[in-house]
Each structure stands twice: as C-alpha cells, then as structure tokens.
Predict the 3D structure of the following.
Amino acid sequence: MNDKNPDPTHIRLAKRVAEQLNCSRSTAEQFIEGGFVSVDGRVEEAPGARVRPDQAVAVAPDASLLELTPVTLLLHKPAGFEAGLGQPTQGGGAHGSRSQGVAAATTLLSATSHLPEDASGIRVLQRHFKQLECFTPLPTEASGLVVYTQDKRIARKLAEDIEVLEQECIVEVKGDIAPNGLQRLCHGLSFNGRPLPPIKVSWQNETKLRFALKGIRPGQIPAMCEAVGLTVVGIKRIRIGRVPLAKVPEGQWRYLQPWEKF
C-alpha cells in the first residue's frame, strides 16, 4: 500500500484505536507503541500502519500507559564497533558521526540480539530502540559494557558522574613486564604530562590484567602498559560503577533491572 496514495477504505491504526477506545490519537499511539494492540491477532507497534475495515483490531485488556516507562540497555559491544557520545538514535541509527567504514554499536540493538536469559521480564518493543543516548563511550578497538538509555535520570547520572564512577576492565597483554611494573601501574605513572592517581591493578592470569579506575582517558591504559614494557592485545570493560556486564555474550544486550544502580 502506498501511503502517498492510500486506499480510502484503509485508515491509520492510531485513528482506528482512538475511535474504538474513544480516546485521543496520542493516547492511541502510546497503546500501539506499548505493544498492546493487535491486528488480526498479531501485535502491531506502528501507529501509522493502515488497516482495512474488515480487519480485527483488539486492545489488550491489561493495556496501561503506566507501563510505558523508559528503558536502559546494557550492550556487550564487540571490538570493531563504534560507541561514543552523540545525538539520540532512531532505532539503530548512527550515534553521531563515525569513522568511515566503522559500524555504530547501535546497529546491534534489536529484538534478535536480546539476551534470551534476560531476567528483567520486560517485553521487547520497537520503541525501546528509539531515542537512546550513550554517555559511556568505548574505543572502537575495545569490547565490553556500553550503556544506552532513554531514562533522563540515568542519562543525567552518567553525564554528571562518569568521571567518578569506577570502571573495571580486563586487559590482555603481551611482553615482559618491567621490574616493579605492577606497582608502577598501581601508582607512579603519568599520562599526558599529568601524574595518575592511585589505580587498582592486579593480575587475573598470566596474560590478563584487571584494572579498576576512575576518570579513564582515551589511550590511557595502552600508554600505561607500554610504560612498563607491555603491549595491549585487547581491552574489555566488565563493569561501570555497581553495574556489571554479567554473562552477556558479545553482540547481545540485556535490560537494566529496576534494582540496579550505577
């Protein structure tokens, strides 16, 4: 059906729902985007979808605008995807400008990449992938936890406190560490001409270091490792504040649960 020349017998779903419920068009649109409206037994989330008079349009008995709360998505970004500060997204669009040939991490946010074991109990809706903001940038070559949110309170928290929230990263390295290198990583190095504050660094195994630090700067961890004779092979962020990545596979995401606080 061409929306520029619609069949006069077809009307917008939002109009049909508004007539059935005797409510405003905007309220009808919210019910539709909330996943409460079905057409011929199939949930339809697009208010602009056109329906025929003979099609059955039903609104779920438990439909409630109280459930239309903003969500926060926790993505396990693989290396090679860009995740940075930018304008709100529109369902998987690019997050601000990005390097040519580098895919935005938001392209990974879809119903098919939702963690099946997500314990939040939240129904995945198309509106959950719109107007997402990211205040937890991660270098393209790094992997791990990236936060996308529609919630203005969480957005403000991350924007204001990202410098003081502790971030935990697992850093894979190669090479031989210099004498007293671990102690120097913890305290005694400089970056961009400024002494670094004390940082918690420990060996996780023979090739991986665990970093827990605040106010991290782009390029800081590779520069720190280089200063003690190590070369970074990979960086994976596993925690921001009190929120862990948990057991989310690369390329999948889960919802932030109501009790989780950064």
Notes: Confidence is low (pLDDT under 50) at residues 90-98. Helices lie at 13-21, 25-33, 152-161, 181-186, 220-227.
